[in-house]
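The instructor's notes for this session suggest beginning with a concrete chain rather than abstract definitions. Hand out the sequence below and ask the class to guess, before any prediction is shown, which regions might be ordered.
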Amino acid sequence: MTEWDQMAQRRAEQEAGRFRRLVDGLREQVGRVIVGMDGVIENTLIALLAGGHVLLEGVPGLGKTLLVRTLSEALDLDFARIQFTPDLMPADITGTMVLWEGPGGEREFQFQHGPIFGNVVLADEVNRATPKTQSALLEAMQEHSVSVAGTTHVLDEPFLVFATQNPIEMEGTYPLPEAQLDRFLFKVRVEFPSLTELHEIMNRTTGVEMPHAEKVASREEILSLAAVAREVPVADHVQQFALRLLLATHPEGEDAPEAVRQFVRYGASPRGAQAMLLSGKVRALMGGRFNVAVEDVKASALPALRHRIGLNFEGQAEEIDPDDLIREAIEGLEAATRQDVPV
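After discussion, reveal the predicted structure:
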């Protein structure tokens, strides 16, 4: 190994260690407020450090809003919450031009910023707003900017949208279009807490003092670590696995299992592979490694792909869970890989 390679390796180890210390600190602070939800917290942290948006799905009262607020506090980021309702208008999100009158009587139009101008934006019950309002959020998610009155306003980085939706109450909702779903790096399911966790929740929330998170890092550190994550190399065979898994979600894909061919109308987009690889890089650093393993891709497959698979009529009628299709695709690829390796 050359001296240059040794220096590069030492730097990689230092960056991985710094990354891991930050994540451990975030876990500790979030754990002071949030009970359980280990998988949800893990995936939320990964998406945050990968610079991606998250769709949180769960019934009301499970702590989704509290989780997002706690993360913003631990990272000293500006937090904004938007309650989506059927009468919400795009200007209520992006902001609008208002007529301002100066002390001397002069008047001029000025742009009044909406709640979208935050670092961490919680779009609560996002599927209750009309498609017109959802499209305003879509531009911000994709372009990290908003256009009002012919002027483009750039949002401060980091800019992350955490949207929530209720999987049970569908009356009066507007399902998110596929294009908007595709902009979420992860779709994370928030499960109901266990009896032990419910006891701890009661102990923390019905006493005199409410727990809170302390600042762990600044926004500059978050942006720096997000840039480091993108430098993590991905071996050809790891990327090959991610791409084959992506194609296995398509009914016409060569590696698609029989259930995918029967129940899927369309598979995940290329953004699904980007989500698996980007989150895989973050997982590697969280594990103290500066290289992505196939296991990192597998661990990210469910939250990265479940919202990007469209079921056909038969799949909807049978209430097929996309997670089961993804697991079956992974098992098929693993079996095919074992057959390709000589004994």
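Then share the key points. The chain is about 50% helix and 15% strand. Residues 3-33 form the longest helix (31 residues).
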